[in-house]
Amino acid sequence: MRAALAVLxxxxxxxxxxxEDVRGLVERLGAPNCAERQAAxxxxxxxxxxxxxxxKGVSPNDPDVRRQLxxxxxxxxxxxxxxxxxxxxxxxxxxxxLKVRLVNDTEDSYRLPPTRGSRGGTGTLSSFWVLVSGKxxxxxxxxEVEWEQIIGPEHRVTPGEVLRVAIxxxxxxxxxxxxxxxxxxxxxxxxxxxxxxxxxxxxxxxADAVRIALKAPAVTVTAYGRKPAELERAxxxxxxxxxxxxxxxxxxxxxxxxxxxxxxxxxxxxxAAIRRLGSNxxxxxxxxxxxxxxxxxxxxxxxAVLALGNFDGNKSRRRLVALAQDHELAGPAIRAxxxxxxxxxxxxxxxxxxxxYADEANAQAIREALYDWTGMHVPRKRSEVxxxxxxxxxxxxxxxxxxxxxx
Length: 407
What we know:
This protein has 15 helices and twelve strands. By secondary structure, the protein is α+β, with helices and mostly antiparallel strands. It starts with a helix and ends with a helix. The chain folds into three domains: 13-76; 79-223, Immunoglobulins (Immunoglobulin-like); 225-403, Leucine-rich Repeat Variant, CATH 1.25.10.10.
């Protein structure tokens, strides 16, 4: 314990000494002697990216010193690789598309030599590689890497530039070969890049070849595709229940519908069941959806109201008309009613526009639905909605004959 405290104290003292040293060097950046200024800049540059926390609270008044500090902190940054992937679970065997950004956050330009046959451009004499779940890394083939930019033989990545690359892993190379989560790392290497130094004043000079080796933080992608019996067992197992709930929440195939019906009252699965069964719109599920519009859970209520829009019939329409007057559920009720082409719906929409209590997004949804159903534009001003209302009164019976009778 004492040893750990001693180490912690020593580290704190070292950081304090470094901070004091940095403050002294910043003051010397404004010295009248040119050699002293250059020596201070060189010593500050030696700190590299450790300079950032040490400059906290340092705010020189001299504009020339501030300019040098800005150049110094920019030069301390590095080339970086940023990786993105979909966070939505995907079916087994799906291709995985990784969006990669190569960011030049330095003060130097880098020349990337050309290579053979990369899609979208000539690419570079370099390698992107992937590492899946900690196994041996694999060098990507040219047809798996697509540069957004055309990379020519003299392409220079200038300070602040971002190169975007799409990596597509599919076929036998997709990492989603079995259910579960996989961690994917992506790296970039270039052994023949050349750097033009530009952090110092004066003409830029071509430096020797430099080796670029970057690795992005890993991302996690989840595959689903378990059989119904496996999902049922997982729901009964505390450790596996969370993954089963997550899979049932995103799957859209008919195999999971019986499971969702059986577990629709489970707190963890209630919302997923309402959304999935509601989109399926089987009449056997209507009582569950209807009763769920009264649920104490706000998310379940909203999902059930939206799902009612998929069910035809007077009962669902009457419930939605009533909920369209409800302050909390008016939005989802209005969106659900736009799927109910009926004279009663048109009259409800006219009343909502005339009273003006719908927000702009819902009012726009109403206007678009009325135009699709009647071919008539509805004015935005409340005072002019009466013109559309008078048109509807004159043409209501004919519209019903053309759109409702016999259907």
